[in-house]
Write a structure and sequence with these properties.
With 239 residues, the chain is α/β, with parallel strands linked by helices. The chain contains 11 helices and 4 strands. Helix 6 packs across helix 8. The relative contact order is 0.12. The model has no long low-confidence stretch (mean pLDDT 91).
Length: 239
């Protein structure tokens, strides 16, 4: 399935940017609801959905299916980021430009080395952060570079790598969230200005909040257990 072709019927009376913005938010909410249901997000989802008829809603669902299919075919890519630029949506944000994935992969391979394995042995997991994540290209590349290192010592990257992402744009943060979720990566994605309101502190202690999006993998038993232990340690330290 070609995601651009699926979108075409939706563009007869709407701007491409609006359809993309609506779809990324609705898709992110649909994923998030399974592990971190928030009433305010669901209400916004319903308001957006009301603007589309049944045929158009099926097309939006088809866009999600096409994304799943493409990321299953090739996990090591920034599928949504590439499409975002191809559709010319970067121009809407005053010349926004996403770093090509091959550049992100080259940077990751130079910086994510055997030291990752040593850190895992000491702590059990590592954290990779990007305070201007865009669609998540640098994080996806770094995750896969770490995965290759961890495979050498027989460790599962899904249980050993935690991503912390942030972007000022809700649209691109949702793009990042969708891709990290579908790739089965444990992550916390924050929507907000990383200069004025940066994500700080231990991500394992991050409380449910409107501006925080938890991927399904971050809520799986391994990470849920670590979050419980982190909260217990924090409580003991404050006594």
């Amino acid at each position: 399935m070609n995601l651009e072709e699926i979108m075409k019927p939706l563009l007869n009376s709407r701007h491409t940017w609006q359809v993309w913005d609506d779809w990324t938010y609705m898709t992110a909410v649909a994923i998030s609801n399974a592990v971190d249901y928030r009433q305010e997000r669901e209400e916004q989802y319903k308001k957006i959905a009301a603007r589309y008829n049944k045929t158009e809603l099926r097309a939006l669902a088809g866009m999600y299916a096409a994304t799943v299919e493409e990321l299953e075919r090739e996990p090591e890519q920034d599928f949504l980021g590439n499409l975002y630029m191809q559709l010319g949506l970067g121009d809407h944000w005053k010349g926004q430009f996403f770093t090509p994935y091959y550049v992100c992969r080259a940077m990751a391979e130079m910086t994510v080395t055997e030291n990752v394995s040593e850190a895992i042995k000491e702590r059990g997991y590592i954290t990779i952060a990007d305070s201007a994540c865009g669609g998540g290209a640098t994080l996806i590349a770094a995750y896969h570079a770490a995965k290759k290192q961890l495979e050498k010592i027989g460790r599962n990257a899904q249980e050993c790598v935690l991503i912390v992402a942030q972007d000022i744009s809700q649209m691109t943060a949702c793009m990042c969230y969708i891709q990290l979720s579908l790739l089965g990566i444990a992550a916390v994605v924050k929507v907000g200005d990383s200069l004025l309101n940066p994500f700080t502190g231990n991500p394992l202690l991050a409380p449910p909040a409107p501006d925080l999006w938890f991927t399904p993998m971050f809520c799986f038993p391994t990470w849920a257990g670590r979050r419980i232990c982190a909260k217990m340690d924090y409580s003991l330290q404050r006594r």
